[in-house]
Amino acid sequence: MNKSSSITTGGTFRFGLLLLAMPLLLWLFLLVILPHVDLFLVSMRERISYGKYEFSLINYIEFFAEPLYWNTYVRTAVMSIFATALTLIIGFPVSYYIAKVMRGKGKNVLFLMCLIPFWVSELVRTFGWMILLRESGVISNFLQWAGLADGPVEMLYNDAAIMVGLVYTSMLFMVVPLVSVLDSLDDSLIEAGYDLGGNAFTVTRDIVIPHAMPGIASGCIVVFMLTLGNYLTPNLLGGKDSLWFTEQIYTQFITRFNWESGSAFGFLLLILSSVIAWVGLKLSKQTLSETVG
Amino acid sequence: MADQFDLECRNVVKTFDDFTAVNDISLAIPKGSFFSILGPSGCGKTTLLRMLAGFQAPTSGDILIKGSSVLGVPPNRRPVNMVFQHLALFPMMNVAENVAYGLKRRGVDKQTIAKKVNETLARVGLPDAGPKQVNQLSGGQKQRIAIARCLVLDPAVLLLDEPLGALDLKLREHMKVELKQLQHEIGTTFVYITHDQSEALVMSDQVAVMNAGRFEQVGAPQDLYYNPKTAFVAGFVGESNRWTGTIGSGDDNKVEVILPTGGKVLAKRDVHMPLVEGQNVEIFVRPEAIAIDGACGAENTISAKVENVLFNGAASSLQVRDVATGHEMTVALPQTGAYASVRAGDEITLGWTVENTRCFAANQSGAWA
């Protein structure tokens, strides 16, 4: 931790710097690095008998041997990518409208309206969706009242319900970076695009989106990671068959009390999110520092 | 008949709520000329330009490009292109892509685009700039690329919105000459918006002086300078000493103006300007029209005390105060270097002719800034 620097500017200075960095270093070490190292070590052992463990790759082998596990794993990844794409498609026009079309007070009001749902917990918001979508819920009753359905309609416990919940939960994390990046786009660039013969489509494709790319990338990474690691929404809106990978981890730790297997799954999820984020950055030709900074 | 004008405005009005930004403007710009619109900030010149480009629609009136009305034609279909105030080069593209942008939108094939881009870059003197990134260019180079990006499309009219504003003084002086030359070579009609009178005077064939949404005067730069038609033009174009006073006695050629401080100045009577005794007027005298000591037939003579010598090479001047009235004046020093020995505190005699003293009815609106 006390890395020796080639530039010696006096012990006091270095001590001060260390003191300033201490909260960050402690946080990183105690809450990020240490648990992960431990998790890794746990995942690499096998329980032989009571209190006896041996080094083994059995937990990882089990994951690949059991189709349910890696099917869930792939399904979670694909659904998360889809949810991220959907959030982007819905969030981009919203952000463009807030950043470029609205002026003055209306802009702040709209932005606040995106923020307001986040004043209550995710649990409450998800229950809100359940009230709307369940068999005896608002939409089902409305459809029956309007004569469009003969009996109660169940809209919960399917993939579409999961998707709705995930997109709703993630929207703010897409809109915030997009609004800030679009705000920084000079209006005259858009006007110049039109002046030189562009139409709405080509100006968006050639000028607005390339400019917004860092915001798009950072929004997508945040939304993707939140979605991939989400437990509550898939579980509540998707029910028992939602097959989300976080549920597998939960089952391993809590139901089966198999910490070794749960740790391995946790690590696999970490690898998955890192790899997909990395591929996403490569595909969009962005760098991590550019996206975060 | 209409074909000889690249751009025409007929009684164009633009109002925002209860504010009139552009008030009944008519103009006709002949083919291939360099036309400037000169005015202080907030006079409506940018609004006018944006209407020409198509970003705003006039409240009433008509805009014609090459003889046909473009009302309701969106900016991307008008045969005009605009050089923006901050140039608005696309930072996500390199120089060649910036120049090629408009051609691509027209669906021109790749070979022709490459050829035209190279030709245009050569025309603005940057033949090797194509692969460069926009942020690698200097201010003056960016300027030329912004113009090249428009010229490659062969617009009927090129609109320029104070494009020199962001440059430093030396480069601005240089670009003025360069723009003028470029316009002369390519022969495209330029409409240039500026608040800087020297830009307008140096570059233009015709200048329209705009104030509070109206054209005060349209004419050649020399015309505006030597024969201003309104007090605003006299005060805005070039340096002037300015007094306010009331009309006293006079004849067909000259009038006597009585200053509130008690002095009297003889001013030329303009045939177009009805002036009656007792009327409030403003009078203007150019600093270079005032002769020091050599009262060679000057009708107006005063003695003044030098307060400051502002040496600036050929543009040197004296700040003096009229001994009798206490009025402050600026007097240009002759470029020959005569009177180089004048120091602050000296008392000198100043004289100027009736011919060089312009008299206008006082501006009622008080919008003169």
Question: What are the defining features of this structure?
Answer:
heterodimer; A: 293 residues; mainly alpha; MetI-like fold; 13 helices; disordered N terminus; B: alpha+beta; Rossmann fold; OB fold (Dihydrolipoamide Acetyltransferase, E2P); 2 domains; six-stranded mixed beta sheet; five-stranded antiparallel beta sheet; 8 helices; disordered C terminus
Describe the structure.
- The complex is a heterodimer of chains A (293) and B (369).
- By secondary structure, chain A is mainly alpha-helical.
- Chain A has one domain: MetI-like (MetI-like fold, Orthogonal Bundle), CATH 1.10.3720.10.
- Chain A has helices at residues 11-43, 58-65, 67-101, 105-115, 122-133, 138-145, 159-183, 187-195, 200-228, 232-238, 245-255, 259-283, 288-292; strands at residues 45-49, 52-55.
- A two-stranded antiparallel ribbon of chain A has the order 1-2.
- In chain A, helix 1 packs across helix 12, helix 3 crosses helix 9 (200-228) and helix 11 runs antiparallel to helix 12.
- Chain A is globular.
- The two termini of chain A are 25 Å apart.
- Residues 1-7 of chain A have low confidence and may be disordered.
- Chain B has 369 residues and is of the alpha+beta class.
- Chain B folds into two domains: 2-231, P-loop containing nucleotide triphosphate hydrolases (Rossmann fold, 3-Layer(aba) Sandwich); 241-361, RNA polymerase II/Efflux pump adaptor protein, barrel-sandwich hybrid domain (OB fold (Dihydrolipoamide Acetyltransferase, E2P), Beta Barrel), CATH 2.40.50.
- Helices cover 23% and strands 34% of the residues of chain B.
- Chain B has eight helices and 20 strands.
- A six-stranded mixed β-sheet of chain B has the order 6-7-8-3-9-10, sandwiched between helices.
- In chain B, strand 4 (60-65) and strand 5 form a beta hairpin.
- In chain B, helix 2 crosses helix 3 (110-123), helix 2 (95-105) runs parallel beside helix 4 (139-151) and helix 3 crosses helix 4.
- Chain B is globular, with a radius of gyration of 24 Å.
- Chain B starts with a strand and ends in an 8-residue tail after the last strand.
- Residues 365-369 of chain B have low confidence and may be disordered.
- Classes of the chains: A mainly alpha (293), B alpha+beta (369).
- At the A-B interface, helix 8 and helix 9 of A face helix 2 of B.
